[in-house]
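Narrative of activities, Objective 1.

The group set out to show that a structural description can be obtained from nothing but a protein's sequence at a throughput compatible with the screening campaign. Below is one input-output pair from the validation batch, recorded exactly as produced.
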Amino acid sequence: MQTKYYDMKFITIFTSAMLLAAVTAPGQTFQFTNAVNQAVPDGNPTGVRSTIDVSGVTGQTLNLDVSLNLSGGYNGDLYVSLTGPTGIYSVLLNRVGVSGSDSFGYGNTGLNITLSDHLGASNIHWYQNAGYTLNGSGQLIGTWSADGLALNLQASPSAADGATPTAGLGSFDGSDANGTWTLFLADLAGGEQSTLVGWSLQVAAVPEPASGSLLLLGAAAMAGVTWRRRASRR
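Output recorded for this entry:
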């Protein structure tokens, strides 16, 4: 009977500690938005840059989602990347639809989308193969994973064939979100002009464990030591 008492005491304390940790240290979500309304130079690889300053995010980045609102233009002309405060970057768009059999890419006009690499969404580079939807303004809508194709801006269209996405939004997992984030956009072919209406970041971060949780976890550890010592004396 004595053994069962100490077993249950240890299990009760440890379980309480873990439950409190889950309650007092949940993931937090932070939203940052920039309304830009800036035209992207047509057929100009120098492009434009837009920044968002992030502060007050506690803990490490667990997931980063990006919302993009681009009107007009020709989607297959666009290259868009995002660089974080630590220098890590992700390729959000890389001339969507461009391939060895289609050197111009997709001709839809604009996007009003969310890019997320943790929701199992289809890769945006091939969105016309994935059951896409356009809004009344002709913009692509919905949630997609980032393009992620880290190819040179002047790479041959055929370079996208079979290429593996290596620069998705998952690149930011575990990084510090605080600081300046830079969105870069370039229109790589002449003929139509896009406008960056706005963009936003949604950061899900895991905070440091709450002090109460740490105390209870310490108590659970001490209970385990005490139980083992008493059990060894029986």
